[in-house]
Each structure stands twice: as structure tokens, then as C-alpha cells.
Specification:
Organism: Streptomyces cylindrosporus
Domain Polysaccharide pyruvyl transferase: 476-702
Shape: globular
Number of strands: 22
Distance between the termini: 25 Å
GO molecular function: transferase activity
Largest sheet: 7 strands, mixed
Pfam family, one: PS_pyruv_trans
Helix content: 40-55%
Strand order of the largest sheet: 3-2-1-4-7-6-8
Structural class: alpha/beta
InterPro entries: Glyco_trans_8 (IPR002495), GNT1/Glycosyltrans_8 (IPR050587), Nucleotide-diphossugar_trans (IPR029044), Polysacch_pyruvyl_Trfase (IPR007345), TPR-like_helical_dom_sf (IPR011990)
């Protein structure tokens, strides 16, 4: 199948931010040697006042020494150094060009030449941050600033600017240059004068607390409690001795005049909401300096949350954990099991069971290790112990359920079966993942039972016994979702979902077919590149058929393996997208319910929404109200967490809608519900692919690249809207109205797009029949 995004000359777009529309935000300052002490205090104040915020910080400079740059980098993990040159302003320089304020003014104009970000927030180096900046991070339109204190509402003070992408453009820079060359601007602060002349009062006005100038405090007045940013305007700076009449203001500045050790300790003492990057950046040297076990635990937990399991092992292994400190033992056990050092993990977790507040979690992890190794009896014992400590502990109940379940009796002879590696979802698990294994099997024939299939759970350790069982079958199929993701059930053997050591994969001697697997990393998520690449390369080499479910995944995987393997990697659509073709005797519904189903996903919410969740929720509230005029709007929950949108809409916006617990549905019920509705607006990948596969029109809420990959493959990118879109509600309603206006025509279009995917599937099936001998 040809697509609009893949050709021999140019592959598909795979940049995650470009596909999801997630805003890239940065802070920016101009820094020189004289103002370096002020900038270091600014960085400390930003971290201490907003401990959960860590965006790129662009440092514009022209003469900083290497030692000064090292001091800056020590205070922030995401510094972007950008050397600037004021020579291009020669044609409109005025006044004393050696004056720092004038030089800074020219350099600050270079902020508007930044192109890598959607939002840039400038901060002067004579500022300190005292309060929450969430409101600034959530701004999405215009150029925002605080009006000048002495000059009224018409002019802005450029110490703080919140600049959106339309101003970070060649067109706006041309206006600034033209104004600068004309000389028609104020002489005192050139950037301020040029900006005020070009904007002529057209800017978003922020409250004065975001740029509270020192002059307001003359007479030694106290700094107001709600001040978010305090600006030490004037020639006398706190690090230079200060100025009479501003003692209380300067005392606030001196709160951030700290050594690195003092600063690290101050950050790490804060409770909750610490950003992963900052916690690791400050916590790692603190642990090396002090051996602090509690901080090591926090840093290790941050590494685990980010998928950096070996780093978690390393930092906790570097300190001496007392026997009675249960929590660090539990976190170290978690990290060790995530890199497949299972015996060491068990020792740590057993120590953690001694403390009542950590015992349930430790027992659940012990149950997981036993289950991974196929020891259901031990898994059940540990999980039951976890419930005895805490009857409400959901992970322990999950492991009881898994360990106590009786596997389906295999009905067929091994030589008549295919082995099938997949993620077999638990009851009340993700509805899409629950349907996938059966859907994959249906692509190989109508019998999806154990008569023809031998199940191999991807998350269980693939050991000698599992290898022997697979090699007795006539082939091995690997497929059932986005198995190329690092953190669903981490292991150190492959670094993706199938827990298979290389040496055992090499000894599989039946044909291997990788079928419709997806590369599922989120925007901002990474793999342990070395281990994953090696396992992936070996898998491609060993496979007789290697089919990925979208061209975006194909491009990602090809970039990770040697060039001679690229041609082995082919397109195989997810079988859920061709359900109508694969289901014997399928009948399209004679009549559809007058409903629109909405699905939202909340796993890894920070990666999905960034700073835009409140905006997304407000836009969805407006959309649900307007969509209600077209049909009844209902929430469809693929997993328990998906119900959150209904709760939040009711609590924050007074909107109620029915919730359909699809996580409790059987596979046939899932297909039936999606086939009977008129339209599905979904955020999960299979809240798009499953309804599409049964012939129902879809609109994707894009918060993950895979959604855009699929829509590009079917040549309907307009069926997707980013959760970050500035006009999300309007676009959803407009596109819904268009799709529903002539519903029969839209359904026919879905069928036509599906037919193209079916052609690919049929062609691949022909090859698979040869490979698998059936």
C-alpha cells in the first residue's frame, strides 16, 4: 500500500513532538560574567519555588568562561548554551554600547530568533522566582508580559516575556529589525523600546506579581506574599552590595545565595512533586557526598519511573542500607528484578516484608518474580501474604488472580499448533490488549483456540522448558500489541516486553513470524538503547517474517538495526483494523445507536499532556456540550483509569456522561459495541483501530505518535486532532459534524481505507503460508 507519508525518497515523519503536537517549552536568559551570580541565584530560585518544573533553559551568552558554564550546568540538567553575536545589530545601535543593559537588550532580541520551541519564557538575571509559574507555562497564545509600572498599560516591561511560536518567527524578527534600523524607539532599554514600538500595546497583560519590580518596595517595604517573580531593577544588585531602602527585598534574594551542597539539600528536603530530572541531577552528587540512604531511595525511584533501572540499581548499591530500612530495600528489589537479577531482588524484597507499611508491595513483587519464573504456587503464597497485610492492595490481588488461574487445556497435537508470544491481559485489564491475541490468531485462520495455538505469555521468562515447548510446534508467532515498549513489564534480558535471553532466542529452530507489532515509545520516553538494539537485531535476523503495524514503527526499527536487515522489515497492519474481513460471517449492523463514544487515556499522563491537561479538559468540556447536539455522548473506558475524564469533567465543569466499563467486556461485546455506535473519538491506539476495523468512523485524540502513524497509513491524517491543539474543541466538533453529515458515505470511506489494509494482509498471508507450511 502506498501512503502520503512514505516513499522511496522520503520516509514518514517520526519526530514524536511533531506528531503529537506536544508543546516544547523553554526558559531563556542572557548571561555574562558580571551577572553570573544573579543568574545562579535565579536558577536556584526556579528549582526551589517550582520543584516539579524542569524545561530546557536557553542561555544566551557571548563571553562566559568555561568555568562559569560549568557552574551553570551544575545547577540545571537541561541547559542549552547558545552563543550570540550582536554584530547584526550594528545598523541600529545607539548610546553607550559597552553598557551592560544596552548589550543585554540587543542579545535578548535574539530570543525571537529561537526556532526549537513553541513557548519561550524570558527571565532577567536580576530576578528570583518566589512562587508558582504554572499560569505562565499554561499560556498558549500571544506575547505576554507585565505592563510597565510607571508608564501605564500601553507599554510592557521586558524583564519577563512569555513568547508563543507565532512571534518566534522570521516575520516578527523582520519587524524588530526594521524598527531597530529606523531608530524610532526609546533609548534607555533598546529591547523594551523596540518591542513596545512594534507591539504598540498589543500584548497579553500579566499580573504585576509575575514581574514585581524592586522600585515598588522603596522605603524597605516587605515583598508581598503572592509575588511570583521579584525583579531587582536598577543599577544596584544584591550580589554587588545592594541598595539602601530595599533590605527586605534583598533578604529574599539572599535566600538563594547557597553553596551547591546547601542548594541540593534544600531541594531534596521538599515533599512530593519533585521533577525526575532535577531529583536525579541534585540527588546524585548529594548521595555521593553524604551516603544519604533516603535520598538514594528517592533518586532510585525516579530512575525506575523513567525506565532507567540500572541507574536505580547503581545508586542504591552505592550506599549502605540498614537492615531495618524497608523502603530502600523494596526499591532496590524492584530495580534488580527490572534488570533480571532475580535472586538478588528476592533477597532485598524479603528484607522489605518486615515493615508493615512496605510489606504488601514487597510481597506483590515477590509474587511477580515467582510468576515470571512459572512458579504459580509460590506466586500465590506471596500474593496471599500481601493481601493479609493489606486487603485493599490491588497488585497483590492481581497476582492472586494470575497465580490461581488454571491455564486452558491444550486440545491439539504440538505439530498442529503455532506457539504464540503475546501479552495476555488480565480480567479488568486494557480492553484493547485483551482483544489483541485473539485478533492476531484470527489472521492465521478461524480457529483461535488451544487446538491450534500454544500460548506463551511475553512477560514470563523464556527458559529452557519454554524453548523446548516452542520447538515442538510448527512455528512461533510474536504479536499482540505494541510489544516494543520498555516499561510495561521491564526485564534485563531483552529490554522490551518479551522476557527472552539472547542465547535462548538463538536456539529457536522453528520459523518465527513477528506479526503486527508496534514501536510504542511515548514522546519523551527512551529505551536502554544497547540491550534493546542487540535483542531487536537478533530478533530481525532470526525471523522468517517481520511485520510491523505502521510505517512509523518501520522507520524507528530500521534506524536501530544494520542496513542489510532493513528489507526484512515490512508493513503488516494490526489485525484489529481488518476485523470485518477476518470474522467469519461478519454482518454490518442494520442500525446504529445514536451515540458518540469518547475515550481518554491516563497511563503516563505527564508524557501525554505535559502542562496542558487543564486546557485539554476545558476543551473537552466544550466539545462534549456541543457534540451532545449531534448524538448522545458516552465515555468508553478501556481500562479503569480511563474513567478519570468522566470524573474530572463532572467535578471541574459540571458535565456528566455515562461511563461504559469496556474493561469488563468479553471480546465479542467489545466489537459489537464499537460496530453499533456512529462515531468514536479515542485516545488509545485501539480506541481507533478496533472501531475502524468494524467499520465505524473515528477521530483520534493524538497524545502518542502511534495514532498519527496509523492515520497516515490510511491516508486520513485529518481524522486526528492533537490533545494540545489550540482549537481542540472546535476542530473535534467540526470534524464530527462533517463525518456524521453523510454517515453512509463516511462508513463507505472507512470500508475503502480498510480494504487497502486487507490487501496488504492478504499478500502477507500468502508468504506466511509458505513460511509456516500451512
Amino acid at each position: 500500500m502506498t501512503t502520503t507519508t512514505l516513499s522511496a525518497a522520503q520516509g514518514p515523519v517520526t519526530d514524536a513532538s511533531a506528531l503529537t503536537g506536544k508543546r516544547k517549552i523553554a526558559f531563556a536568559s542572557f548571561v555574562d560574567e558580571n551577572y553570573l551570580p544573579g543568574f545562579l541565584a535565579l536558577l536556584r530560585s526556579l528549582a526551589l519555588s517550582n520543584p516539579g518544573v524542569c524545561e530546557d533553559f536557553v542561555v544566551l551568552y557571548d563571553d562566559l568562561r568555561p568555568g562559569s558554564i560549568a557552574k551553570i550546568r551544575a545547577l540545571h540538567p537541561r541547559i542549552v548554551m547558545k552563543r550570540v553575536d550582536a554584530d547584526h545589530y550594528d545598523s541600529y545601535k545607539k548610546g553607550d554600547q559597552d553598557n551592560y543593559l544596552v548589550r543585554k537588550a540587543y542579545f535578548i532580541l535574539d530570543v525571537f530568533r529561537i526556532r526549537e520551541y513553541d513557548t519561550v519564557i524570558t527571565l532577567d538575571t536580576d530576578m528570583v522566582v518566589l512562587g508558582d509559574l504554572t499560569e505562565l507555562l499554561q499560556l498558549r497564545e500571544g506575547l505576554a508580559a507585565v505592563p510597565q509600572f510607571f508608564y501605564g498599560q500601553h507599554k510592557l516591561n521586558s524583564g519577563l516575556l512569555v513568547i508563543q511560536r507565532e512571534y518566534l518567527s522570521d516575520a516578527f524578527c523582520a519587524k524588530l529589525d526594521k524598527c531597530g534600523r529606523s531608530g524610532d524607539y526609546e533609548l534607555d532599554k533598546h529591547d523594551q523600546g523596540i518591542l513596545n514600538s512594534v507591539l504598540d500595546g498589543d500584548f497579553v497583560r500579566l499580573d504585576a506579581r509575575y514581574n514585581f519590580v524592586k522600585r515598588r518596595l522603596s522605603g524597605d517595604l516587605p515583598v508581598p506574599e503572592d509575588t511570583a517573580i521579584l525583579h531587582f531593577t536598577g543599577r544596584h544588585k544584591p550580589w554587588q552590595g545592594g541598595e539602601a531602602g530595599y533590605a527586605q527585598a534583598e533578604e529574599r534574594w539572599r535566600e538563594f545565595e547557597l553553596t551547591d551542597a546547601e542548594f541540593h539539600a534544600a531541594y531534596l528536603e521538599q515533599q512530593g512533586g519533585l521533577h525526575h530530572d532535577l531529583l536525579v541531577h541534585y540527588g546524585t552528587p548529594h548521595v555521593a557526598r553524604t551516603g544519604d540512604v533516603e535520598v538514594a531511595r528517592k533518586v532510585a525511584a525516579a530512575h525506575i519511573a523513567n525506565g532507567d533501572y540500572q541507574d536505580a540499581v547503581d545508586i542504591l548499591s552505592s550506599v549502605r542500607i540498614p537492615l531495618d530500612e524497608a523502603w530502600p530495600h523494596e526499591v532496590l528489589g524492584h530495580a534488580l528484578m527490572s534488570v533480571s537479577r532475580y535472586d538478588e531482588a528476592k533477597a532485598q524484597l524479603l528484607l522489605a516484608t518486615a515493615a508493615p507499611n512496605r510489606a504488601a508491595t514487597a510481597y506483590a513483587r515477590l509474587a511477580q518474580i515467582a510468576w515470571v519464573h512459572g512458579d504459580n504456587a509460590t506466586a500465590l503464597k506471596h500474593a496471599t501474604a500481601g493481601i493479609s497485610v493489606d486487603p485493599t492492595h490491588r497488585p497483590s490481588r492481581l497476582w492472586v488472580q494470575r497465580a490461581a488461574s488454571v491455564p486452558a487445556q491444550e486440545l491439539g497435537a504440538p505439530e498442529d499448533q503455532l506457539a504464540h508470544v503475546a501479552f495476555y491481559m488480565d480480567r479488568q485489564g486494557n480492553a484493547g490488549d485483551k482483544l489483541l491475541p485473539e485478533s492476531v490468531r484470527s489472521a492465521f485462520g478461524p480457529d483461535t483456540t488451544s487446538r491450534r495455538w500454544h500460548s506463551v505469555h511475553a512477560h514470563r521468562l523464556f527458559d529452557e522448558a519454554a524453548l523446548e515447548r516452542v520447538n515442538r510446534r510448527r512455528g512461533l508467532v510474536i504479536g499482540g500489541g505494541g510489544l516494543f515498549i520498555p516499561d510495561t513489564m521491564p526485564n534485563g534480558n531483552s529490554a522490551w516486553q518479551w522476557n527472552v535471553p539472547d542465547e535462548l532466542m538463538k536456539r529457536i529452530d522453528v520459523p518465527i513470524a513477528v506479526f503486527a507489532v508496534g514501536f510504542n515509545a511515548f514522546d519523551g520516553q527512551s529505551y536502554r538503547a544497547g540491550r534493546f538494539r542487540e535483542s531487536l537485531r537478533l530478533l530481525v535476523e532470526q525471523s522468517s517474517f517481520f511485520g510491523l503495524r505502521n510505517h512509523g514503527s518501520i522507520a524507528k526499527v530500521r534506524a536501530m538495526v544494520p542496513a542489510h536487515l532493513h528489507d526484512k522489515i515490512r508493513f503488516q497492519p494490526c489485525p484489529t483494523t481488518v476485523t470485518r474481513q477476518l470474522t467469519p460471517g461478519w454482518q454490518d449492523p442494520a442500525k446504529r445507536d445514536d451515540t458518540i463514544l469518547i475515550n481518554a487515556a491516563y497511563d503516563r499522563a505527564g508524557l501525554r499532556f505535559g502542562h496542558d491537561y487543564d486546557y485539554f479538559l476545558a476543551q473537552m468540556a466544550k466539545a462534549v456540550r456541543d457534540l451532545g447536539e449531534l448524538a448522545e455522548v458516552q465515555c468508553v473506558a478501556h481500562s479503569l483509569d480511563d474513567e478519570k475524564i468522566a470524573f474530572d469533567l463532572r467535578r471541574e465543569h459540571g458535565i456528566s456522561m455515562p461511563v461504559i466499563p469496556m474493561y469488563d467486556f468479553e471480546n465479542k461485546e467489545i466489537l459489537d459495541l464499537y460496530a453499533r455506535t456512529k462515531l468514536v473519538i479515542g485516545m488509545r491506539g485501539h480506541a481507533g483501530m478496533i472501531p475502524f476495523g468494524v467499520g465505524t468512523p473515528i477521530i483520534s485524540l493524538i497524545s502518542h505518535p502511534k495514532m498519527a502513524y496509523f492515520l497516515n497509513d490510511i491516508e486520513r491524517p485529518e481524522w486526528g486532532v492533537s490533545v494540545h491543539d489550540r482549537h481542540l474543541a472546535a476542530r473535534l466538533v467540526e470534524r464530527s459534524r462533517d463525518l456524521l453529515a453523510d454517515h453512509a458515505k463516511t462508513v463507505a470511506d472507512v470500508h475503502g481505507r480498510q480494504q487497502e489494509l486487507w490487501k496488504v494482509t492478504e499478500a502477507n498471508a500468502s508468504d506466511l503460508r509458505v513460511i509456516l507450511g500451512s
